[in-house]
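Is this the right way to post structure tokens for a design question? Let me know if I should format differently. Anyway, here goes:
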């Protein structure tokens, strides 16, 4: 009985002493650029965090000299009789970009 109690107390003490994860703290991940909570491998592209509607390319992941290139949604003029939808910031790039919205043909 006492062994189980001591084990339970040790587990609780260990869990409560674990450090909290903070997205604002830099995490060393060599070879990757960090944009918010998104990691993109050097030389590759990836969607930015949800809510930004942007794609990033990690050009250099050297500490202190991290370089990225970003690309936003293409601009367009809707066809006659059509509209342009709003951004959908709940989706990642490119699904968040505005789209052509045309009435159904009858």
């Amino acid at each position: 009985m006492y062994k189980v109690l001591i084990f339970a107390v040790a587990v609780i003490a260990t869990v409560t002493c674990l450090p909290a994860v903070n997205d604002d703290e830099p995490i060393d991940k060599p070879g990757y650029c960090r944009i918010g909570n998104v990691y993109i491998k050097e030389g590759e592209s990836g969607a930015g965090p949800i809510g930004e509607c942007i794609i990033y390319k990690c050009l250099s992941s050297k500490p202190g000299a991290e370089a990225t290139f970003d690309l936003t949604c293409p601009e367009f003029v809707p066809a006659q009789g059509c509209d342009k939808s709003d951004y959908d910031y709940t989706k990642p790039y490119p699904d968040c970009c505005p789209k052509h919205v045309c009435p159904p043909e009858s």
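Format looks fine. Someone answered above. Worth noting: Helices lie at 2-16. The beta strands are 32-35, 38-41, 45-47, 55-60, 67-71, 83-84, 100-101.
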